[in-house]
Amino acid sequence: GKIIVIVGLIAILGIFTITAINYISTLLAPSVSILILPLKSESDILQQNLQGKALSDEVIQRLAAFKKFKPIGQSSALFLDNMGNNIYSKMHQINTEYLLQGTLSETSTKIVINLSLTDSSKNSLLNKKIEINLDSYYEVPIEIVKEIAKHFKIESDEKNSYIFKKPIVDNNTYLIYLRGKEMIYGKTYESISNAQDLFEHVLSIDKSFIDARCAIGYTLLKKIENNWLSKTFELEKAESILMNRYGIDSTNPYILLNIGLLYSYLNKFDEADDKLNSAIKLLPNSSQLYFTFAKHYIRQGKFSDAEEALMDAYQLDPYNLEILKLLAASYQLLNK
Questions:
Q1: Bridge partner list, 118
Q2: Which of 1, 65, 235, 324 has its CA 20 to 30 Å from the CA of residue 134?
Q3: 4-57 tens-digit pLDDT
Q4: Cα–Cα distance, 182 to 178 (Å, whole number)
């Protein structure tokens, strides 16, 4: 009887030890720096190329919610997408280890994604074909993130439901939303306004679609930032959109991010700190979030804190002109 008990205890101790080793290994594992290029249409169809650009941004946004992934921001991804074979030398320059590329096509019933993962030395690490029902485009980013996480054996924080949360919206509405996201990258008044119109159309179809609500808030705050329209009017509209009767989705870090920036513009700095600090717990590796922190600190005259946040943003999005311009301005303010 004693032998059986001892054997049982040894077995339990062995299981505990293996579990502990795996847990410690996960904690000590280095972060994965990865560049996600826009998905390309296999048949060079313009609409699919535009969708591929927006879908890749959705992947980047979700990867930024992992503690162990450091995805390069979308602005830099779009810049590097034009580098051709020089992209690998650029990856070395910005200390990025991995590159994910892919193609997008459709059959009569399926969306077909072909993914290719390489390292900065051009070694092929993964080739994966993903097929998703044609009426389920909103599943594409989630399935791509799952494949990346599976390959690197990185698990998400169970408390962070945003990473794999599916939008509760029909496929056609989601495609309109993607078109709006793609327009944002133009960063002109016209492109931002056109994106806003599409997001508002989406919201008129489904008032509970939180990502569209968040995107409208982003476009309004962008107009304020660029002094394109009346600050008072846009702030009131942004507040109405973001702080809506459906309540704040505290599991969506991008809503928290935009509300934090809104509070900062309203000079409610304590409330802004609260929302931005809540966002960073769910979004530890987002260049957009660190950039938002920097703007928030500058509004308070905290230029050293702003510089630190900008450097974090720069590490994640080194070819983002907005970050580079604000970083140069912060150096001037600090007399560097």
A1: 99, 124
A2: 65
A3: 655 555 545 554 444 443 444 444 457 999 999 999 999 999 999 999 999 999
A4: 6
In sequence order, the β-bridge partners of residue 119 are 98
CA 35 to centroid of chain Cα atoms:
12
Angle (deg, nearest 10), helices 253-265 and 287-299: 20
Measured CA to CA, the distance from residue 226 to residue 189 in angstroms comes to 9
Query: Which tens digit of pLDDT belongs to each residue from 157-207?
Result: 666 788 888 887 899 999 999 999 999 988 899 999 999 999 999 999 988
Q: Which residues pair with 40 in a beta bridge?
A: 103
Q: How far apart are CA 100 and CA 90, in angstroms?
A: 15
**How would residue 1 be classed by pLDDT, with cut points 50, 70 and 90?**
low
Which residues, 6+ apart, have CB-to-CB distance to 90 below 8 Å?
80, 83
CA distances from 39 to 13, 14, 47, 97 (A): 47, 45, 12, 19
Fill in the amino acid letter for 21.
Answer: I
Return d(Cα 64, Cα 312) in angstroms, integer: 13
DSSP H/E element including 102: strand 98-106
HEC sequence for 275-310: HHHHHHHHCCCCHHHHHHHHHHHHHCCCHHHHHHHH
| pTM over cut 0.85 | yes
Helix (H) or strand (E) holding 305: helix 303-316
Q: pLDDT averaged over the chain? A: 88
Residues with Cβ < 8 Å from 226, sequence gap 6 or more?
Answer: 189
pLDDT one-digit tens code per residue, 114-129: 999 999 999 999 999 9
